[in-house]
Amino acid sequence: MSIIITSKLVKKFIPVRKSSSRKGDNGKVLVLGGSYIYHGAPALSSLAALRTGADLVYTCVPKINVQSTRAVSPNLIVIPLADSKLTRGAVNKLLGQIPRDLDSATIGMGLSIQDPEALKLLVKSLLERDVRLSLDASALVNYILPFLSGKNVIVTPHPGEFKRLFGEVPPESKKTRITMVEKFAKEHSVTIILKGSTDIISNGTTTYLNPKNIPAMTVGGTGDILSGIIAGILAQNRDVLESAVTATYFNGLAGKMTQRKFGTHMTATDLLDVLPNVMKSFDKIK
User: Fold this and answer.
1) Disulfide check for 234: which of 132, 168, 171, 189 has CB 3.0–4.6 Å away?
2) Where are the domains of the chain?
3) How many other C-beta atoms are found inside a 10 Å radius of the C-beta of residue 158?
4) For the whole model, what pTM was predicted?
5) How many Å is the maximal CA-CA distance in the chain?
6) What is the pLDDT of residues 107-124, one digit of tens each?
7) Which residues are within 8 A (CB) of 54 and not within 5 positions of it... i.e. 6 or more apart?
8) Which residues, 6+ apart, have CB-to-CB distance to 89 below 8 Å?
9) Alpha-helix runs per DSSP H in the chain
10) Does domain 2-168+181-282 have CATH number 3.40.50.1220?
């Protein structure tokens, strides 16, 4: 049976934020992405993670993108990737630069991967450090699945990426689509968010549906926003399924609010502007 996500449900998944907390207590996040063409994707994800309440976000992008990424916002902590694409050398250097106590990471938005072994090394190393992961875009590749089984990992494919990751195209029938998501989530012991007009979120045992029907959200960058929200929430809530549910719900609410304002003329950055208004009524401070 599938569960429709409601605000009442999401409120149960929001962790309490201590009024006595210090910088870093509410999440340290790594965002890794970007390429010569797609310079904006990791910046969108990073800002979304900050808007979600994470304290510190480290944005790793290729050197060619560093200046433009820093210019986007002074709130970003930008780490240059040693190479223009993801290589083992770049990963080894990055692992020595990032804090060892990262809470979460999101990988893949706009990223060019030169060496599959580099992605394997990065994912394996972060998981060994107990970092909760969200994988998107170019990180959604079949060869990474064996490293994810039973770990704290969320994958966020749209239908095309789902085929690349799992080898099958999600059917149009919602019922059959749900069954397929549940099958692969259980088989690979991961939490899947299959993005669409209705998001399907499942860990293979429990399945949630997030009906959106927001045609304006087909604009580029909204998936990057979702990845940032996921990383921000994962940094504060260790339960990956709860984090996935919460993130998709907030992303959808922001989309609805933005579409009401701009119709089908919204951009991804418009979502960032409304996120605080969407989320603040869910805040729990002790």
Assistant:
1) 132
2) 2-168+181-282
3) 16
4) 0.97
5) 49
6) 999 999 999 999 999 999
7) 26, 27, 28, 29, 104, 231, 232, 235, 236
8) 82, 83
9) 7-13, 40-51, 63-72, 88-97, 116-128, 159-166, 174-188, 222-234, 240-262, 268-279
10) no
